[in-house]
Structures are given as structure tokens and as C-alpha cells.
Write a structure and sequence with these properties.
The chain has 116 residues and is an alpha/beta fold. Helix content is 46%, strand content 22%. It is built from five helices and five strands; from the N terminus they run βαβαβαβαβα. Strands 2-1-3-4-5 form a five-stranded parallel β-sheet, sandwiched between helices. α3 links the parallel β3 and β4 (75-79). The protein is globular and about 35 Å long. The termini are close together.
């Protein structure tokens, strides 16, 4: 079973992805707020993080930097922000991949499989 932490404030999207990815033996834990996600990473073990950039209280690029300070697990950015600066900054801050929304959940599954 692959364990993934998804830091995403769009709960509807997160639940759709969670249900879809279950069929591929990928277990998603959802954190709707960035500080909850960072705290969850300290107490539980995950194989990968899916991270939105537009989050309440703390920008996803900052979250990416914080994750990278303490963890080496792969990070996939899942964001509606399409500015090239955001993409480059995310990759420079330690993300392995950047998937612009909207996307097909099948593509996300393929990217998770590729990274792991």
C-alpha cells in the first residue's frame, strides 16, 4: 500500500482523487490546511506528498520548503497556478513534479507510480 499525504484545501477534489487512487492501492490522507499537513508529516510516515500551492494561511511554495527541510520523500505539486515562475520556484524548492490543474486522475496515478 502506497501512503500519500495530500495537502489540498479543495476537499471535493481531494475526495475524488482519494476514491480514484484507492483502486491502485494508493491510500490518501487529506490535510485541508498547510499547518495540519506539516504536523501530520511529523507524526506519520508517507511515501509521497501531493501539494497544492494556493492554501489558506501559508503559501504552498513555503510548505514545499518546510517539507524539504525535514523530509526526502517525493513532492508532486498539484496547482491551478500556471505561471512559469511558480513552476520553476516549486522545482527549485524541492518538488519533483508539477501537475497543472485541471488534470485527469489517471495522469496523477501515473506520475505517482513513476516517482515511486
Amino acid at each position: 500500500m502506497t501512503r500519500v499525504l495530500m495537502i489540498e484545501d479543495d476537499l471535493e477534489l481531494a475526495e475524488i482523487l482519494m476514491e480514484y487512487l484507492e483502486q491502485f492501492d494508493i491510500n490518501i490522507t487529506i490535510a485541508e490546511e498547510p499547518y495540519i499537513g506539516l504536523s501530520t508529516l511529523k507524526t506519520r510516515s508517507f511515501d509521497l506528498v501531493i501539494l497544492d500551492l494556493t492554501l489558506p494561511g501559508l503559501d504552498g511554495l513555503e510548505v514545499c520548503k518546510e517539507i524539504r527541510k525535514h523530509h526526502t520523500l517525493p513532492i508532486i505539486i498539484s496547482s491551478a497556478r500556471t505561471d512559469i515562475t511558480d513552476k520553476v520556484t516549486a522545482l527549485e524548492n524541492g518538488a519533483e513534479d508539477y501537475l497543472p490543474k485541471p488534470y485527469n486522475p489517471r495522469e496523477l496515478q501515473a506520475r505517482i507510480k513513476s516517482l515511486l
